[in-house]
Amino acid sequence: MKNKIAIITGITGQDGSYLAELLLKKNYIVHGIRRRSSSINTSRIDHLHDNKKILGKKFFLHYGDLLDSISLEKIINKILPDEIYNLAAQSHVKISFDMPEYTSNVNALGTLRILEIIKNLSNKKRIKFYQASTSELFGDSVHKKKDENTPFFPKSPYATSKLFSYWITKNYRESYNLYCVNGILFNHESPRRGLNFVTRKITYILTRISNGLENKLEIGNLNAKRDWGHAKEYSEMMWKMLQLKKPEDFVIATEKQFSVRNFIELTCKEIGFQIKWKGKNLDEYGYVSRIFDENLKIKINQKIVVINKRFFRPNDVEDLLGKSIKARKKLNWKPKYNIKKLIKDMVKEDKLLAEYEVLKKKANK
Ligand code: NAP
Ligand code: G4F
Questions:
Q1: Among 8, 21, 90, 235, which residue carries the largest CB count within 10 Å?
Q2: How far apart, in whole angstroms, are the C-alpha atoms of residue 260 and residue 232?
């Protein structure tokens, strides 16, 4: 049987790297679009790229940018893929308040640029298109559990740019009979998550503190609640959405909710100590109240979590919880990772990074 061909935008990101691994396992030929960067941005996929013996004819990287139609058109026209996964984005909500125009150009118009190319190719090939939509679209919606029918209420330039992409994807499906779907994914994390997203920031810094490499974790809104799953599993759902006969949009969520505060407490427990909280609002802090592992480089009563105004947003989404009944039925979706398993996976990798740095420091002394 002929290998299927996929293009992944955002291949150097968290989800792109997991999706590339999955598609290669399924015998796809994978073409990734990477943008030009002055420093190396392929660390999440180097293990695929380097493995030339096995993947030499199956894995390719191309320079391109969602801001640059010429590069996108050239790549898509040449490869004529079966599937395109549009994962590229300025994906940081807080940064979108600092760079609203750039965020909209990449996230909103970038999607339109790809859809136009697909539309113009539709007499040559029916390319299936996946759009990385987001639970941020729901924003301030009053409904507690959000599903495919919940009205959107975006609260940031990021969410607003993704709202355009959601609708333009749906419009192109309905207007031009294209196979285009929105995966409305709730937050998903992993050891490959960027360091400036809250979960990875917590596991990375707390493992460093417990190895004596740092003193404090500075954090913003402790009370924001999220529905956190594992990125590896969510990437598989993207693929599943494109295997259905009819294009449809899906919500993917664990249907369990935890606060940033809960995430910190569970991470401390996984590392081997207990944290307690004192104070209020900006003066609140977290201190070590019990230590279960005597090898940890921390002390009882040590103040390890402090609030820093810098990490608050002009407008935050306080409460996100999903309902993914449709995906459970039609995609056989059932999360294998719960919050504890997710944290265990992240702490394990970050602990190794911290221990490696300790060894390096010792060797340099
Ligand atoms: P990520 O780690 O931030 O990856 C974003 C990717 O987009 C990176 O490969 C980045 O390249 C690339 N990119 C950024 N601007 C680009 C441009 N102008 N042209 C081409 N590529 C560009 O994000 P992620 O967590 O994997 O998320 C993947 C997608 O799902 C994003 O669209 C995100 O908005 C969406 N999403 C994520 C979540 C989540 O919880 N993770 C939930 C719902 C939706 P560099 O490596 O060069 O920066
Ligand atoms: O980890 P976050 O930055 O993720 P956020 O804003 O929910 O966005 C992520 O998930 C979306 C899906 O819902 C994606 F579409 C998006 O691309 C991205 O992947 O922040 C989570 C919560 C927020 O309420 C934030 O205010 O954590 C709170 N928070 C508290 N202290 C912090 C911090 N967030 C960050 N990044 N850094 C902090 O120090």
A1: 8
A2: 21
| Residue 134 CB–ligand 1 contact under 6 Å | yes
Whether residue 146 has its Cβ less than 6 Å from ligand 2: no
Distance of CA 213 to the CA centre of its chain: 27
Q: Identify the H or E element spanning 157.
A: helix 157-176
Amino acid found at 361: K
Does ligand 1 come within 6 angstroms of the Cβ of 194? yes
Mean pLDDT, residues 239-267: 98
Task: Characterize the bridge pairing of strands 128-134 and 188-189.
Answer: unpaired
Q: What is the pLDDT of residues 94-116, one digit of tens each?
A: 999 999 999 999 999 999 999 99
Residue at 221: amino acid letter? N
Closest residue CA from atom 27 of ligand 1: 15
Q: How does pLDDT run across 38-87, given as a tens digit for each residue?
A: 999 999 999 997 655 556 679 999 999 999 999 999 999 999 999 999 99
The pLDDT value recorded for residue 51 is 58
Residue 89 CA to ligand 1 center (angstroms) comes to: 4
Ligand 2 close to Cβ of residue 225 (< 6 A):
no
pTM of the complete model:
0.97
CA of 185 to the centre of ligand 1 (A): 13
Count CB-CB contacts under 10 A for residue 129.
24
Greatest alpha-carbon pair distance for the chain in Å reads 68
